[in-house]
Amino acid sequence: MALPAALAEMPRHFPRLSINEVDEQVRLLAEKVFAKVLREEDSKDAFSLFTVPEDCPIGQKEAKERELEKELAEQKSAETVKRKKSFKMIRSQSMSLQIPSHDWKIPTVSPVASPVSPIEPEAPVFRGPAPAAPVPYDGPEFQRVTICGDYCAGVTVDDYEQAATSLAKALIIREKYSRLAYHRFPRTTSQYLCTMNGTESWKMEDEVYPEFNPPPGDREDPYNLENVPPNLHYVVMMKGGIPYIYDDKAKMAANEPRSLPYPDLETYTLDLSHILALIADGPTKTYCHRRLNFLGSKFNLHEMLNEMAELKELKSVPHRDFYNVRKVDTHIHAAACMNQKHLLRFIKHTYRTEPDRVVTERNGQGVTLKELFEGLHMDPYDLTVDSLDVHAGRQTFHRFDKFNAKYNPVGASELRDLYLKTENYIGGEYFARIIKEVAQELEESKYQYTEPRLSIYGRAPEEWDSLAKWFIKHKLYSPNMRWMIQVPRIYDIFRSKKILPDFGKMMENIFLPLFEATINPTDHKELYLFLNYVTGFDSVDDESKHSDHMFSYKSPNPDEWCHEQNPPYSYYLYFMYANIMLLNNLRKERGMSTFLFRPHCGEAGSITHLVSAFITADNISHGLNLKKSPVLQYLYYLAQIPIAMSPLSNNSLFLEYSKNPLREFLHKGLVVSLSTDDPMQFHYTKEALMEEYAIAAQVWKLSTCDLCEIARNSVLQSGLSDKEKSSEALLQLLELRPEGNDISRTNVAQIRMAYRYETLCNELSFLADAMNSPHLTGAKP
Description:
- Belongs to the metallo-dependent hydrolases superfamily. Adenosine and AMP deaminases family.
- There is one protein chain.
- The chain has 30 helices and 15 strands.
- It is α/β, with parallel strands linked by helices.
- The longest helix has 34 residues, at 282-315.
- It starts with 23 loop residues before the first helix and ends with a helix.
């Protein structure tokens, strides 16, 4: 819905830092981490601190001896003993506030902020060294696991304070970048961060959400090109890969851009350096490893004590079970959204019904479908799924090049261009028909949704108009589909073929048409309409590709990146985030939908990829490498960053199924969902998403509550609108506020939701207690 013609400018600014404000030791440690990634040094340095071998997660014997020496030294220090007593008192107050009463009420939660918050909007917020959990809440009655005694056994006071301070700063950094881009940040974590700084109280009106358009009504035309907002005639100019928006040409000549949070590379790299240094910090790594071990063990105890109570709760819910709760395939590529049998059946059908149709061109002459197959020396009647050869197997393990070749049916790129591309001689008709058949199956199932990715390469700005016209011409809207745009990281290929002069031109081709369609939608009606059904952007390609460039504030800007070397992963993520952030702010001003940044991350390659995504992404796909870094894994838990995991895909490419960390992540409380990635390559059945759930349930012995929790996570992670999440999938609207978990829709036991919430509050309270200690605040104990 567009705002009135008298558009009010929303002044938002990017908080800048000076390099002098950052500790030099932090910057140097971050550079060592990056240097280790690039040079693969053999010496034991900073990088070895967070590359954790499974058989020895904390380190060698000398590390344990060092910790013991510090413990003994602390016992002899009167000051340390005094501080430990203070922490014990603070912990006892925090724990008493976390014990719920027996009269349970559904706690408050936002459709995009999970888990729920301990603070009602009207409730006062404690300041300064107040207890971490400001207000007790009412929860269901079940058997709880409570640890009493020392403030943090096994970790020295200094290490505890250092770890808590660093982790809190990392969360503040993520919150800053999430708010700027209208990404989601959990309300609970945000409220605890407010109690840590003691300077401001949390307000509901300060919360930011992404904006997704609700689906058209039953009597509405999803392809209606009327009622388009008016043009604003702003001027957009790309400088160094960043768009600058001016009211008119006079403002541009005076260099007076509109008040938007234009990003600052130096500030971003300083924030990135803090996280890089943090994951290489020994005390923080030790603390996070202990807390993660505790979370896993605590869930095992919870499951042992409450599994039957959860099952009893689920059995009492009428008309709801695992089969009819909503599930979203949060990570799937449109070019492989069908299974191999579906593709084979479609190829045979088109050959049988349209053999004389001209489908391509060769040497200026039209080529019919029959002639195309004759040129390939094959008869579609004889094709089988084996001869189609699109399924990944053992031969693709750690061979991403062979996996990409599987997109070519029978190894022929001509068939890929004909059946799996949007731009070809027949205008992508066959590809559209396949997708519509997949959408029809989803609509018949009713309870399954999917978020297919379509590619924009950045070769030319006309790609967007072509894709939008393809979408509208073939009427590809489906209430069970939400579309995403994936940007392959293949600038080096385009540069070597002289298609692009520099990386800045690639960013301009990708994002400038979106700014023009947002500013002047009546001049770009088709693209404006298509963007209403797009919910986010993805960054895709082989993460294991090595880059020799170390990303820093000294890196060349995109206009200067004119050589054939591909920019590193972190470089791609920053400039994609910067453009999406500015685009979201501009679209928010106009009352239009916003976009999430949801890159592939952590499937392979450097651990630093996950650091960049922690700052810039709303959620990620894969996240396998979190297992290697306890600090990052704990941060992803505290920030409740959703992770779309694809165990069957990983099993064929990078990690055996039995070693996949999904079950471990789920038990610890990370927000994980199941996704298919590429059904054409990895699945056999008609319902690929159900195949993922079924195999995971059998291999890891997941309970019904586990499966429904994963399904609930998938809906929260997705780009479904708040209306769909509330009325169809998750929440029950009561008065004007969304209320907590509705078991009649999610089939997730209230006991499980209370356990997740209380556990997160407990972990956040450890950070708050340390940050509010007299030693750090300067207050008298």
